[in-house]
Amino acid sequence: MTPTKTEEFVGIIPAAGKGTRLSSIVFPKELVILPYKKTIRQKIHDMKVACEFCIECLSSANVNLAYVVISSDKLAILNFLKDGNNLGLKLGYVYQVGSKGLAEAIDCVYPFIENKSVVLVFPDTIIHPTVSISNMLQEFKSRDEDVVLGIFDTEYPSELCQVVYDKNYQVKELFDKDKIVRVRNTWGTAAWRPRFNQFLHDFVKNNNTTSSEYSLSDVFTAAIKEGMNILAYPICDSVYLDIGTPEGLNKAIWFFK
């Protein structure tokens, strides 16, 4: 029996970035075509564009509505995904003027998700198996923390955001693009409750006049300092691929081969 879709969590898919890490591609990296096998026994490959994988994760978790944040350079994503009905959920679009970073991209959606729980997935990453997101949300629903971070092992911890957590899986510190390797992990997806929507909105509002850049991990760090609890959810026996770099894209192609 197919589970009933629920609006308990609303998805956010940030796709307004400039994609400078993969500048050799002249179209949105989220639309890169990847071959894949539906089952291990299949010998014939099917095709998917990169952003379909994160939408599959949301649909598998019974999320029935997601907002895609796009910019003027990413209108092709809207033309490809359309309303999302053929992908198993409804899609809405929020236009971000300029590319001001991930935290501000999420804040663009604030008027629509202010009082809702949110799950964040990235359209230039691949999480396999897709049920990993569903499992993370099921655990989060049974907990009281404000935020949960999906933690993945990585070969490149100094290039991503390392997450230090204790034996009770409470996040203590985050180190974004830090050359010192403390742990070989990174967060690759997240979910949070409405309280964090307001915190992020206020953080962006209070920092939008500063010249210094900040990341979403900086917002998580500030939230911890303000007394919010962030849960680490290690996603074991899974694959996390970032196709936003030439190396990551090549790795994804070889993975599906």
Structure, described:
The protein has 257 residues and is an alpha/beta fold. The chain is built from eight helices and 13 strands. A seven-stranded mixed β-sheet has the order 5-4-1-6-11-8-12. A two-stranded antiparallel ribbon has the order 2-3. The longest helix has 14 residues. The protein is globular, with a radius of gyration of 17 Å. The N terminus is likely disordered.
- The CATH superfamily name is Spore Coat Polysaccharide Biosynthesis Protein SpsA, Chain A
Distance between the termini: 32 Å
List SSEs in N-to-C order: EEEHEHEHHEEHEEEEHHEEH
Kindly state the number of beta strands.
13
C-alpha Rg, in Å? 17 Å
Q: Tell me roughly what share of residues is in helical segments.
A: 25-40%
- Could you give a short account of the major beta sheet? 7 strands, mixed
Uncertain residue segments = 1-7, 40-44
How much of the polypeptide forms β-strand, as a percent range?
25-35%
- Which structural class do you get from the secondary structure elements? alpha/beta
CATH topology: Spore Coat Polysaccharide Biosynthesis Protein SpsA, Chain A
* Integer average pLDDT: 87
Backbone shape: globular
Number of helices: 8
Q: What strand line-up does the widest sheet have?
A: 5-4-1-6-11-8-12
Main CATH class? Alpha Beta
CATH architecture: Alpha-Beta Complex
How many domain units? 1
